[in-house]
Amino acid sequence: MSATRQAGPAVTTPPAPGPGRSGGRTRQRSLALRLLARPEVGVFLGAVAVFVFFLIAAPSVRDGSSMATVLYQSSTIGIMALPVALLMIGGEFDLSAGVAVVTSALTASMLSYQLTMNVWMGVIVALVVSLAVGAFNGWVLVKTGLPSFLVTLGTFLILQGVNLAVTKLVTGNVATDDISDMDGFDQAKALFASSFDVGGVQVKITVVWWLAFAALATWLLLRTKYGNWVFAVGGSKESARAVGVPVTFTKITLFMLVGFGAWFVGMHQLFTFNTVQSGEGVGQELIYIAAAVIGGCLLTGGYGSAIGPVFGAFMFGMVNQGIVYAGWNPDWFKAFLGVMLLGAVLINLYVRRAATRR
């Protein structure tokens, strides 16, 4: 006798969602994680928050001339923060960047004045000196294997002493002589320290140079082989060398880029004030490094962008001037910077963990 088996109701199993059928929540989370993985997203949100805060706390910030001043303050930090950020992505940092700015300005000023030369000769020699200081830092680092902290700390102390001693020896004072009446001064000032009118507001030329350098640095990092080398040596120089990356060349040229930035900012200071105080620049290196860190660069290297330090420098300029416009005690400035720096480090840590979480 054959048994008759009655078929039960069919169980319908929903098909696994394919790539094009994933739920909106999953898609949104993936997009959010991709955005969080960008090193400049956190600092951009922070810059917007600081900007809105001072718009409310200091109504005078809304004036065009006030914003021009904020941008100017940001640009003088941002021009140096860009090469410092590239160097940090490459796994190193430079403690001599602040005094190197003054070294370049002193070189151009004293050479032009004492030898009665066209100021452009001083500008060119200052560029050579600044690039040589950067090349020296990079060469010592790759040849000895010492940490960049020790190498550039030594250079910082050397330059600080040389700036003061040579200036006193040559000029008999701690400051250089006024070079505003020398040949070529007006042309150099137009390039490094001029202003132009935008809707009745005077904007410093350094703002244009800052944005132009940021665009160039972004292209260099993301669209060139050299940019790949920078990320590679910052991630692991041994692995980078194993796949053919010229580690020595990359490290030295990164330090030379910092030297170029120091030269440019030094020329701006010289042609803005016509004279240079030899004891200045100490502590500025920490501002440049902090702007890069707030901008998403890691001290361990291999991670960061050129756009992030732009927003980091803007936050510095906004806080610096915003406190003044709000009528607060300027002594709070450093406290604000410390809060921003610590907050940026914690945000970057959270962002990296969230972006890599499965």
Keywords:
70% helix, mainly alpha, disordered N terminus, two-stranded antiparallel ribbon
Unreliable sequence segments:
1-28
Averaged pLDDT: 86
Q: Provide the β-strand percentage band.
A: under 5%
Count of strand segments: 2
C-alpha termini separation: 58 Å
Going by helix content, strand content and strand pairing, the class is: mainly alpha
Strand order of the largest sheet: 1-2
Radius of gyration: 26 Å
The topology string of helices and strands comes to: HHHHHHHEEHHHHHHH
Number of helices: 14
Portion of residues within helices: 55-70%
Tell the overall outline: globular
Main beta-sheet annotation: 2 strands, antiparallel
What does the model show?
This protein is mostly helical. Helices cover 70% and strands 2% of the residues. It contains 14 helices and 2 strands. Helix 2 packs parallel to helix 13 and helix 12 (284-294) packs parallel to helix 14 (332-356). Residues 1-28 have low confidence and may be disordered.
